[in-house]
Amino acid sequence: MGLLAMTVRRQEQPVDLFAQAGAFLRAHRLSPHPANYALAHANVVDPDGPLATEILRLTQGGLRLSVEDVVRLGGVAQTGVAVTPPPPAERTEFADALVARTRLQVDGFRDTVHAMSVEAQDFGRDLAATLADHSPAAQIGGIVHLASVMIERARIAESRLASATREADELRAALDEARGSARRDPLTDLPNRRAFDEAYAALDQEEAALAICDIDRFKQVNDRFGHAVGDRVLKAIGASLAESCPQGFVARFGGEEFVMIFPTLAIARGTLEETRERAAQRRLRVRETDEVIGAVTFSAGLTGITRGEPLEAALVRADAALYAAKQAGRNCMREIPNVGG
Questions:
Q1: How far apart are CA 268 and CA 284, in angstroms?
Q2: Are 211 and 300 in contact (CB under 8 A)?
């Protein structure tokens, strides 16, 4: 496309290209690297071009671009929304490094405070000794000297404290990142079981709703297409649940199960039914071979929960409702009421 034609097309765009490019980066969890922005911009500016057509093919069914896809298309495989957690061995090393760094930080603060305390005591002794001299001239000269020494020591101490504060801020950020990684599922980037347990314990309302969703016949997907494709399906279903449930808390429960907390049963029913129907209408494909996976559905079990109810009791009801949905033929939702609520 020539420069003139490109200019005319840009002028005809009825929406903000920058906003659309930013939405593309967020959707595929890409950093605002110039190469990634160029990729996003080209996709928006020329939606019928070969690049946009290829991106559409790769992302059919709600899938995100893989790392390999991004690099092949000219982008930079560098996440800007979520940090991919390192393997278990590296996570252990990372945790050990944080512990060692924390200890060094504490030791550094202790040494700084101790040095300031010693210097203050020395100043007090020196000042007392100077004032013991009955010569006014000597007293003034000694006090001036001590004051200049203390000013310099205070400057050095202030510099040490500023450096220690910066290190503490960096350490706090690293600890927050480590804490967040420990509460997220590395495959789907959703909260994990630990984060779900904490969210349930923090519920502070009289009534709410809990649901368990399970992908139907997921083992067949793994057996037929391989675990790499199965992982992509898990990510796609997890993303669909999270995007469709802004009022709910969505976590990966383990395997092909997801668990959700909603503010009310009415919101849960409507949201789950709409999300389930949308998932059933999608037709997924294998990116590399273009082989049709078809519709990947899920079943859901729903129950009401009350303030202070043990999590185990709520999970038993939701799981029983999920079993009833599976027995009813899958791709449906069943609800078991909380008779004790």
A1: 26
A2: yes
Q: What is the pLDDT of residue 26?
A: 79
Tell me the pLDDT tens digit for each residue of 254-289: 899 999 999 999 999 999 999 999 999 988 888 778
Structure tokens at 167: 């290190």
pLDDT at 143 exceeding the cut of 80: no
Q: How far is 147 from 259, CA to CA, in rounded Å?
A: 66
| Contacting residues for 50 by C-beta, under 8 A, at least 6 apart | none
Supply the pLDDT for residue 7. Answer: 36
Rounded CA-CA distance 272/293 in Å is: 23
256 noted as active-site residue: yes
- pLDDT computed for residue 145 by the predictor: 74
What is residue 69's three-state secondary structure? helix
User: Which pLDDT score is estimated for 80?
Assistant: 35
Those residues with Cβ within 8 angstroms of residue 35's Cβ, 6 or more apart along the chain or in another chain: 74, 75, 76
In whole angstroms, give the CA distance from residue 28 to residue 141: 70
Task: Say which of 256, 257, 274, 312 is annotated catalytic.
Answer: 256
Q: DSSP alpha helices (H): ranges in the chain?
A: 3-12, 17-27, 34-45, 50-58, 67-72, 88-132, 136-181, 193-201, 218-225, 227-244, 265-281, 311-327
Are 85 and 91 contacting, i.e. CB atoms less than 8 angstroms apart? Answer: yes
d(CA 45, CA 20): 10
N-term to C-term CA, the chain: 65
